[in-house]
Amino acid sequence: MSMRVLVLIFVSVCMAISVPAWAADITACVACHNDKMVANPILDGQHAKYIEKQLHDLKKDLRVHAQMQGIAKTMNDKQIVDISKTFANKKWANPNPKSNPAVQEEGKNLVRKGNCTRCHGSELEGTYNIPRLAGQRSLYLKTTLLQYKNKERNNFPPMSSMLNRYSEEEIGVMAEYIAGLAYQE
What we know:
By secondary structure, the chain is mostly helical.
């Protein structure tokens, strides 16, 4: 074998192992989960186990979203894990400006009233399988919280009962406040 062939084999092996085995092509995903699609959630930096759960719930019709259900049903378990890990390993983006001071204070009080930090962490950074909320898009947060409140989204029932105590206006204030929180990894 020539030295050139050995070098090519070595370089090929190094390149193959430098990319994690689970790294998935998320090109199709970012068509909707990008900076311009403000009604869709930020997935970059979200917790892998949370993304996995949502994709499995969509696949099993436990979470309703016609477009995403169709996509999730085409994915096998390995693809779900790979895509979830790929997004989780990206840097969390916080495209939201800080909310105005009045909203900050009221939103902070509403979050405290609901004890959101009990599950979502002291900075609303989420945990292993609970979503990061700090810096998530306001419109997406408001829509999702209202879906839980109105039992239109029921893949995690405790959220529905917790949100019953809030008005639609209060949920909007909470969403704006949470979206304006900067989260640093």
